[in-house]
Fold:
Amino acid sequence: MIDLKEELKKYEPVLEVDSVEKSIKSDEIKDIMDLLQYISENK
Amino acid sequence: MKCPNCNYAFENSNICPNCEIDTVLFAKTTLVSGRLYNKGLNQIKAGDLSGAIESLIRSIEFNKVNSHSRNLLGLVYFEIGMIGDALKHWIISANYDKENNLAEEYIKRLQDDTATLERLNDAVEMYNQAIIYLEQNSGHMAIIQLEKAVEYNPKFLKAQNLLAVMYLVQEENRRASDIVKKVLSIDVTNELAIRYSEALNINGDEPEKANIVVKEKTLFQKLHISKIIALIVGVLCTVAAFEIFIIPSSSTTQLDDVRIASSQIEQQYQRILAERDEYLQHMIEEVERLKELNVQLNVEREQELDLYIRMSQINIVLPYILEELYEEARYIIDSINMQDFPWELLQSIEMIREEIYQRIEYNNE
Structure:
């Protein structure tokens, strides 16, 4: 049977249009190459 | 050789002296990113949108500038109602790759159709508001918001799933079942919808679902990647055109009527809530009053019991008098606490006491 409290943990707020710009700025957009570069720079 | 990242020409090394990228590794990650893009595309063809999102996100993790993956991920997000996430990926894509990028076209289409954009964003806001209501244990208000959200955007799968949960909890299984079927017709591997479908014991439509997948495979197998993207864009354009040109003004009026009715229901619900709170407060006060009364009655009852016990002590004295044990009778009668005794009883006790004292005096003589 579905447990509402447990089920609700799976639902999080969805990004609204007004917050897109902020989300892009706050996101650390990284891929594997960025990570490898970061690791090699900090060796 | 030319660096695949910055196009700088160099020799005798795998590391680009300009951007310090390992060109061999860069080529490999680009290849993996491309393969994941293809996988995501195939998953979309099979109606597996959840799987496609996973693959496309992984594709971007291998190569963040893969604009094909970003644009397709944006389209999938758009398709399932996550308009903010769609825009976010298109904006990032357009920023990385400014030449012939479909992302710019998608953004422009949305910006040109502000009514649709607002409607889709309103649906997201309502869904987010529903989550807030649920955190405040206002299930009914959450349902109202979710019903409006899916009315504004029937393809908003997160809102549909949450509404299905709410119906499930309220044991409105038929409504929950309709929603789950709708979600699975858009995203056949939607984990939550599959779970709810199991909870609802939906299995009558399994062959239908399988048919949908097979049909989509047959259709998409004939198309190339660019055609599929063009097809999705075409669908978006059709939807936009339909909204602008075909839906008559009466629909807008009907929508307004629904909005007004919905607002009235909300107000009525708030009024009922206020009345309920007032009634609850009244009941709490009544319970407190009854508790105090009960305490008071208990005290009075204990006082009466105490008086009765003290009054009954006089009966102990009589057998001693009959046995002519006057000293013992005097000791007992003197030790009785006669506070609050009735006046008649006090007189009787006083007569008995006088008799006992006289007998003692007589015996001593």
